[in-house]
Write a structure and sequence with these properties.
This protein is an all-beta fold and 355 residues long. It has one domain: Methylamine Dehydrogenase, Chain H, CATH 2.130.10. The chain has one helix and 28 strands. The longest helix has 8 residues. The radius of gyration is 20 Å and the shape is globular.
Length: 355
């Protein structure tokens, strides 16, 4: 299951008290809409505006209005791209015929199985511009939370079609049987975010640095909270996700790239009671979703201390939109989102209008 999509399902189960929204008098940004259609599902975008995802159960990319089908791993029944680097190389996961995910990378127009799991599960979540891949791997189907490892795959210099597994550390402490980790995203610098779990800290966001030891730290929850998850990060080492609070409500947060990974509450849209952030770029812009109880969520853009309803930022000449899902954003400020216009549900690319 797509991890980011699960945020909406998680938020739908929460009932929490109303909280104030952030307000500002700054000039609101504006966007043009490119309709990407509903036939494909899109999950990632690079700084050149090339989009990666899945069409008809095949990995695919969208470039300047043209969709290119990249197929599946040999023998597979599906493939889904989850990340794309500056060179247009994609990674993702797909099966080899048994329904179990294996991590792949696109090489010369086809998909290479990075790590044949042989009965386990492997998923890639990010790739650097020099081809280092990050993701998750378990060779056990026991259900033990400690069976997952965060992995860095590096190409074998002597065998370009092979990759070496490098296991990133678990968070120290607690009962080893319940010491879990999972990666959700990485950046160009080779830093990784996700979550860590132990019997001492519960579950908190996780941050793996790009030092020689790939040092892992737990990302703090908001004051009074005890649970957090990091869903994405930018190339500067800032991360975003969600945290609970003292009253157990869920809020969109950003962790700064200071030594303490200071956590910032991003708030909610006016009238809403809960939120979660799913992407951040190097300008510090954040996108995510905001909602009240069981109501339809609204996608938001947060910048310079203000949270905007993303649908209200669409140029009126592009029609009236409701936008209730958001997947990714690049450093140029382009956003992949899901919305409805004229009763038609579709994926869209939002491109900033120069002001």
């Amino acid at each position: 299951m797509n991890i980011k999509k699960s945020i909406l399902n998680t938020l739908a189960t929460l009932t929490i008290a109303a909280l104030p929204a952030i307000a500002s008098a700054q000039t609101a940004p504006a966007f043009h809409v490119t309709d990407l259609g509903s036939a494909c599902g899109w999950q990632a975008i690079n700084d050149s505006g090339v989009i990666a995802g899945s069409c008809n159960s095949d990995a695919a990319i969208w470039r300047n209005g043209v969709v290119t089908d990249l197929g599946r791993i040999t023998g597979g029944t599906y493939a889904n791209a989850t990340a794309i680097n500056s060179l247009g190389v994609i990674v993702g996961d797909g099966d080899t015929g048994n329904g179990r995910p294996n991590p792949f990378i696109s090489v010369n127009g086809h998909l290479l199985n990075v790590d044949a799991v042989n009965g386990g599960n492997g998923r890639s979540v990010g790739i650097t511009d020099n081809g280092v891949i990050f993701g998750n791997l378990t060779k056990s189907l026991s259900g033990n939370t400690a069976s997952w490892n965060v992995i860095m795959w590096t190409q074998d210099p002597g065998h370009p079609d092979r990759y070496k597994e490098n296991v990133l550390p678990h968070y120290p402490g607690g009962d080893a049987k319940f010491n879990g980790v999972y990666a959700t995203a990485s950046n160009k610098a080779g830093q990784v975010v996700g979550w860590v779990t132990t019997t001492l800290i519960g579950q908190l966001g996780g941050f793996w640095n790009n030092d020689a030891a790939h040092t892992v730290v737990a990302l703090p929850a908001l004051p009074g909270g005890n649970h957090s998850i990091a869903w994405a990060m930018n190339d500067l080492g800032q991360a975003v996700g969600d945290s609970n609070t003292l009253d157990m409500s869920t809020r969109a947060v950003m962790w700064q790239n200071d030594a303490a990974h200071s956590v910032v509450d991003l708030g909610t849209l006016p009238g809403d009671t809960e939120s979660a952030s799913v992407a951040i770029n190097t300008a510090g812009q954040v996108v995510g979703i905001s909602r009240a109880g069981a109501a339809t969520p609204r996608a938001f853009l947060y910048q310079n201390g203000t949270m905007y309803d993303l649908a209200t930022l669409v140029d009126p000449t592009d029609g009236f939109w409701t936008i209730d899902n958001v997947m990714a954003m690049n450093n140029a400020g382009q956003i992949i989102a899901g919305g409805t216009s004229g009763g038609v549900r579709t994926w869209i690319l939002l491109t900033p209008i120069a002001q």
